[in-house]
């Protein structure tokens, strides 16, 4: 069982940056692929980025070059650095843990409660 707690969301002007954190409980954090998803107002939840247990990363095209996912297994934490934020990036951002390496929600078994990110122009 893994519990995930996100933090770091907030209000930021367009063009600004935020770093999200996701702290995980459990002794097997390093074995999981960790992903970030987001759900904008009135939209479905979509994939943002993921990092595998061997630090292989993969990004949605819409964030490639602006967002960076990383992990620190010593601290059981995954991060999402978000640069050059746009108003359309406004969403609740969710952290997830799973055994796969893909971008589908059904590949992730554990989810956090989400953290709100609002980018305003």
Descriptors:
121 residues, mainly beta, 7-stranded mixed β-sheet, 0% helix
Short overview:
By secondary structure, the chain is mainly beta.
Helix proportion range: under 10%
Q: Give the count of helical stretches.
A: 0
> Structural class per helix/strand content?
mainly beta
Main sheet makeup = 7 strands, mixed
**For the terminal residues, how far apart are their CA atoms?**
40 Å
What is the element string, with H for helices and E for strands?
A: EEEEEEEEEEE
**Strands, total number:** 11
Uncertain stretches of 5 or more adjacent residues:
none
User: Which outline best applies?
Assistant: globular
Q: Radius of gyration from the CA trace?
A: 13 Å
Explain what the structure shows.
It is built from no helices and 11 strands. Strands 2, 4, 5, 6, 9, 10 and 11 form a 7-stranded mixed sheet that branches. Strand 7 and strand 8 form a beta hairpin. It is globular, with a radius of gyration of 13 Å. The N and C termini lie far apart (40 Å).
